[in-house]
């Protein structure tokens, strides 16, 4: 008798079919409906959620990079200010330094809340991927040997036979069953089509409905196998020979799991201003409902990103009209507050930044990005643009080097200028801005033998003990931080 069926093979084949065949034609994921349809396939829902989580993770990474770039830009403008110290463009560089620093600080503060929202949504998606991977393919089965039992009359058309029932064991989704990183072919979701920012609905797995597919194998045998057997005319699952004296067969009952994929609406796009529903449980570690999961994901989608636009990416006209720039410009010019006349307040900012868009771009924007300098940090000389140096870990040392370099230049100018006492006095005041009181006191000796040779130098012509060239206290920088502190009061 030919084998009518092989129970293990049948169970495995039907189990695979139950796990990986979708009832509807799946779309590419270009629209929400197509993505939801594709996600009905156990492999595709894992892919969709994994790709959505990747898209979200990239957003977090890009946002953090933008904040770091703002901080580097603020430091680069401060370096430029040191390069321009003593020139007519110095005050404009001070203005940009304050604006860039404020922009970076605000973005960094806002980043804490925004990254927290994005991270929460990422964790929700990760949990969903785990559910889809761990339980979604439970119909993929292996058959274990059953035990002899009394077959029910409905499944035992003839007496004197021996029957077996078997319940297959279930196993979770394995790498050999589907690769969630693979997005080739139909009906698989395409990675490039999953953009969480433009998603209005998302397919999520309801683990409360998720149950293993039940497979019941019923085997029946009677008499002896015979190669000339033929299918039974009524019970097609049996092979018969010799007037039903020899029988062999098996049936497989498949009980499919309920539809555990639910299309969750993240927000109502028909409203003038789409809003997210408030989750019943705000702690994502305790969230158990799909509505709460959808609310968490929605917050990550709809909440605005803090502004990470650099002040150097704005036009001169845009900068001049901001109240912030007008206030800083007034302080730099020695005014107690910005002019009440809007035209005057705008003009002051514009004049400080070169007077025209072309001058502004050349003197400041391009200078930050293209001006190359050579600095000596711990005996190692480095040449690069101001912005590139600001992005390096030793950027604070670079700024300190520039401050010290300017200090040396100012000291030299003070020593060499002996013909104009008034001008010398002005230089002296400028020089002392970069040195703290303690260092100045140590170089205040009136006799050569009392002048500290390590920190000071003796001017024979003027009989004065002066601070050595380059001996600068790094903590004293430029006025920008003071202006910044004033603005933050």
Structure commentary:
The protein is an alpha+beta fold and 489 residues long. The protein has 2 domains: 7-66 and 112-302, no CATH class; 393-489, no CATH class. The protein is 44% helix and 14% strand. It has helices at residues 7-20, 32-38, 42-84, 90-135, 290-302, 316-320, 323-332, 342-352, 357-370, 386-390, 395-416, 421-432, 437-442, 480-487; strands at 141-142, 147-149, 162-166, 169-170, 201-205, 214-222, 230-231, 238-241, 246-255, 261-265, 372-377, 380-385, 456-459, 464-467. Strands 2-3-6-9-8-7 form a 6-stranded antiparallel β-sheet, with helices on one face. A two-stranded antiparallel sheet has the order 1-4. Strand 7 (230-231) and strand 8 (238-241) form a beta hairpin. Helix 4 (90-135) runs antiparallel to helix 5 (290-302) and helix 11 (395-416) packs antiparallel against helix 12. Residues 1-40, 136-156, 170-176, 410-415, 417-439 and 469-489 have low confidence and may be disordered. Keywords: Signal. It comes from Trypanosoma brucei. Residues 412-433 are annotated as: Disordered. Residues 1-26 form the signal peptide.
Question: What's the main sheet like?
Answer: 6 strands, antiparallel
Helix content, binned percent: 40-55%
Number of helices: 14
Pairing-aware structural class of the strands and helices?
alpha+beta
Q: Say what oligomer this is.
A: single chain
pLDDT < 50 stretches? 1-40, 136-156, 170-176, 410-415, 417-439, 469-489
Number of strands: 14
The neighbouring-strand order within the major sheet is 2-3-6-9-8-7
The secondary-structure element order is HHHHEEEEEEEEEEHHHHHEEHHHHEEH
Described by the principal axes of the CA atoms, the overall outline is elongated
Q: What do the pLDDT scores average to?
A: 70
